Amino acid sequence: MVHLVVLCKLEPHVSQERVEEMARQARTHLLKVPQVLHVRSGKRIDKDNAYPYFYSVDVESLDKLAMYRDDPHQVKFHTEVILPNTRERLELVYELEPNKDVRYS
Fold it and tell me: Which parts of the chain have pLDDT scores under 70?
């Protein structure tokens, strides 16, 4: 299993209400992607955290992660929600099941 986490620094104009809406939109858009098994999204609690917003998805393999990246629902979310509201992103990909070949499922 592969876990993708995206940490986002926000544009100055983004309100707390908008961050909450972004979290809802992550679930709305990304759960429509057939390869996605689970979506998490939310806002920071610790004010010292440099990344006030995050979203993450779980997929079965790196192949499915590639399909996720090309899916129209993910592209729409990235284009309409992420790009206009964030100024910097940190993307991390983790293996959740050690000793399993994450290239394929």
Answer: 98-105
CA dist 44 to 10, 19, 48, 99, Å?
Answer: 12, 10, 9, 32
Strand ranges in 1-105 using DSSP code E only, listed in sequence order:
2-10, 38-43, 53-59, 86-95
pLDDT tens per residue, range 29-55: 999 999 999 999 999 999 999 999 999
Q: Which two tokens stand for residue 68?
A: 């996720």
Radius of gyration (C-alpha) of the chain in whole angstroms: 14
Instruction: Assess contact for 59 and 50: CB atoms under 8 A.
Output: no
Q: What is the DSSP letter of 104?
A: -
State the pairing for strand pair 53-59/38-43: antiparallel
pTM of the predicted model, to two decimals? Answer: 0.90
Q: What is the token pair recorded at 66?
A: 């590639």
Which domains are delineated in the chain?
A: 2-39+54-95 (3.30.70.100)
